[in-house]
Design brief:
The chain contains ten helices and 13 strands.
Length: 360
């Protein structure tokens, strides 16, 4: 048994994916008798608090980027660059304050660039060791690489939620590892890994899993609802907005939920005849953990999702469609994968945590 330490967990607030993949890490730390403090705001905080209602938490304000309504995100991102840079600086200052406030012995940041401490060991979790920039920003590749490496160097360690071998899900995004920073591949992470395996599947004809930043999340939701006018089967839409407003009535066969608890969502994923989802990495890891395929529709302009959707489609794991030509009539084809998914390896995470805690 390891001496108890206080670990501050800080996920990025760009959708709920970064918070969801912190869930298995928190479970593992608690099993190792560690004290965990959550630090977030908005939907990520709502998700983590609903999953761990007894854990202490701290409010950590964030800037959530807006990607614009068009396919190109170059102009919106450039316009927000000063705000994002200031967020990085303010995040670092805030983390130092929170470390002192809760007596943290270490910080684990899921892709939140500025969430490192100069006072205690800090871990950076990312699957994007190598960034894929949006179309039209190729000129900034070297600058982005420099900034990514510079920011990561502020941390003590990097953990990559992927396999380090041919089973890799993230491909070129996560390989090769950082050269200037102690880095470990801890295997894919899924919030469903700690939920009982023998759940009764909840059978529905179509499950739509929305996620990601606005306004594209809402744009895609409206497109899905429009295409459901002639859909006869039972549809469940997981909106991924835990703090969303009350929902308006829709067709009798369509059920919208601002948030679905992990246990029920697992039953729905296992039982859905067809699944449509964003190509976010956390969503992909959840689907692979449950050995379920889907029609992946990347958020427009998010080149990381476009790369993942295309790459995993070519490997035979998923179908892939861009949002501008998305058609629900092609979704039933996503019933079966043409290739076997790699199995998860939870011992990679446990071994990494054990070594890290032992080092102090």
């Amino acid at each position: 048994m390891f001496p108890q330490k206080t670990i501050l967990i800080v996920p990025l607030n760009w959708g709920i994916g970064h918070a969801s993949r912190c869930i298995p890490i928190v479970h593992a730390l608690l099993e190792m008798n560690q004290r965990v403090v959550l630090a977030a705001d908005g939907a990520p905080l709502a998700l983590l608090r609903s999953t761990f209602p007894d854990l202490p938490w701290l409010y950590f304000p964030s800037h959530e980027p807006h990607y614009g309504k068009g396919k190109s995100v170059v102009a919106p991102l450039l316009a927000q660059a000063p705000a994002l840079l200031w967020q990085l600086i303010s995040d670092h200052r805030k983390v130092e304050q929170l470390v002192k406030e809760c007596g943290a012995d270490a910080v684990i940041s899921d892709n939140r660039f500025g969430a490192y401490s100069s006072k205690v060991p800090s871990v950076f979790i990312t699957h994007q060791v190598h960034l894929h920039l949006p179309k039209g920003m190729g000129w900034a590749t070297q600058a982005a690489k420099f900034v990514n490496n510079l920011v990561a160097s502020r941390y003590s360690n990097c953990w990559i939620p992927d396999f380090g071998d041919e089973r890799s899900l993230a491909g070129d995004l996560s390989h090769p590892p950082f050269k200037h920073l102690p880095t470990k591949y801890i295997g894919p992470l899924s919030r469903f890994a700690t939920i009982e395996d023998h759940l009764e599947p909840e059978v529905v004809d179509l499950l739509v899993m929305l996620s990601g930043p606005e306004p594209q999340r809402s744009i895609f939701e409206k497109e899905v609802l429009k295409q459901l006018d002639d859909f006869k089967g039972t549809v469940v839409i997981a909106r991924a907005v835990p703090q969303g407003k009350p929902l308006s009535d829709v067709a009798k066969n369509v059920y919208l939920f601002n948030h679905i608890g992990d246990e029920r969502l697992k039953r729905l994923i296992l039982g859905a005849k067809t699944i449509v989802a964003r190509a976010g990495y956390s969503t992909i890891m959840d689907l692979v953990a449950l050995q379920r395929t889907a029609l992946l529709v990347p958020t427009p302009g998010q080149s990381e999702q476009e790369y993942l959707g295309s790459r995993l489609g070519k490997k035979g794991y998923f179908l892939f469609a861009e949002q501008h030509n998305f058609d629900l009539r092609s979704a039933p084809m996503a019933g079966l994968a043409t290739a076997a998914f790699p199995s998860f390896a939870p011992n990679l995470l446990r071994d990494c945590l054990a070594q890290w805690l032992a080092l102090g």
